[in-house]
């Protein structure tokens, strides 16, 4: 994830193909870390996320569910 724009309710993402896309969210969008709901404010730049995205009638990409990958698993393990 590149950044969260809370003014416009948008998340800028870099896909696995290195393409930058923007998806919208709203207060009903659920954000989870593991099995705990954490809210959109928990997202930070460079987080790895999985988002369930659909298209609105206007053609915008909209996330209704976001899962935050466990930050502890992204580092090296000893």
Describe this entry's structure for a reader:
- The chain is mainly beta.
- 5% of the residues lie in helices and 44% in strands.
- It has 1 helix and 7 strands; from the N terminus they run E-E-E-E-E-E-E-H.
- It has one helix spanning 71-74; strands at residues 3-5, 10-14, 20-24, 30-33, 36-37, 49-55, 61-68.
- Mean pLDDT is 87; it is low at 73-78.
Structure keywords:
78 residues; mainly beta; four-stranded mixed beta sheet; three-stranded antiparallel beta sheet; 1 helix; 44% strand; disordered C terminus
How do the helices and strands line up, and which of them pair or pack?
Layout: E1 3-5, E2 10-14, E3 20-24, E4 30-33, E5 36-37, E6 49-55, E7 61-68, H1 71-74
Parallel strand pairs: 4-7
Antiparallel strand pairs: 1-2, 2-3, 4-5, 6-7
Provide the β-strand percentage band: 35-45%
Please bin the fraction of helical residues: under 10%
- Give the overall shape: globular
Biggest sheet features: 4 strands, mixed
Total helical segments: 1
Please provide the count of β strands.
7
Spatially, the strands of the biggest sheet line up as 5-4-7-6
Sketch the topology as an H/E string, one letter per element.
EEEEEEEH
- Tell me the structural class: mainly beta
Provide mean pLDDT, rounded.
87
Distance between the termini: 26 Å
In short:
This protein is mostly beta strands and about 80 residues long. It is built from 1 helix and 7 strands; from the N terminus they run E-E-E-E-E-E-E-H. It has one helix at about 70-75, and strands spanning about 5, 10-15, 20-25, 30-35, 35, 50-55, 60-70.
